[in-house]
Specification:
CATH superfamily of the largest domain: endopeptidase domain like (from Nostoc punctiforme)
Helix content: 40-55%
Distance between the termini: 181 Å
Number of helices: 5
CATH class of the largest domain: Alpha Beta
Strand content: 15-25%
Structural class: alpha+beta
Order of helices and strands: EEHHHEEHHEEEEEE
Radius of gyration: 59 Å
Strand order of the largest sheet: 5-10-6-7-8-9
Low-confidence stretches: 17-43, 143-176
Largest sheet: 6 strands, antiparallel
CATH topology of the largest domain: endopeptidase fold (from Nostoc punctiforme)
Number of strands: 10
Amino acid sequence: MSHTAHIPSHRKPRRSAPKVTVLRAGVAGGVLSTIAVAGAAGPANAEPVTQTIEMPTLTSGLASDFAKSADATQRVANNLDLRAQESAAITKAAKAAKTAHAEAERKAEAEKKKKAAAEARAKAAAEAERASRAAQRTTLAATASSADSGSGSGSNQTSSGSGSTGSASTTAPATSSPATGSAAAVVSFVQSHVGDAYIMGSTGPNAWDCSGLVQAAYSQIGVDLPRVSQSQSTAGTQVSLDNLQPGDILYWGGAGSAYHTAIYIGGGQFVGAQNPSKGVVQASLDYDPPSGAVRVL
């Protein structure tokens, strides 16, 4: 036996290593994490050792701040997108307005040019008509003068042709018969349109050319006349200008080649659509002596 066999040992009993480890984590609820280490084995008089470690946690308040920050960022993005859309809409509207303005100016300019061209054509037509009438009157006067000279006499016919733009036959007698029946209707119609405008090619109801007015006057009593002056000058029986009656058609130029017509209304007066500057007028035969006349009624 060893000499140390009966000597009691003075070493303290060795403690065994902890066998149980408990880990609690409260990340969502904000609970402190605790690690407990306890001796589960060993002598009865061993004292337990406990150690607590505090761990950082994500609180509900911080999560709420993150959510608010994300919401604010989204609102800013939405506002920027809305402003971009508004800016694009304003730019598009401004471009459309500019285009519409340019188109309106273009149309106005085109309309202005069209109106100016129409006025120029009307003026040229009026000038041509006046020149044609003047030439016709000059020709007729020369013809009458030649005929008078050829007669070799100083008759009343020769003396009556002097000092005027036409012969005595261009002035109707002052004692012409008053209009009656259909002739009165024709006279009344043309007189009702005195003051209307003259437009080349127009047939009413408020603007006329010369033959258009004559045709309309006879149309309302059921008489269908040709449309143009040349044809109207041969539409009835040729009558002397000394024997005119209300309703007779007066013409200027030759029969079948007339360039102007009007209606004799009696009393040495006629009504006709003269030209763009005068319109429909009532005037004396001396104002514009006609070349001849035809009777339809």
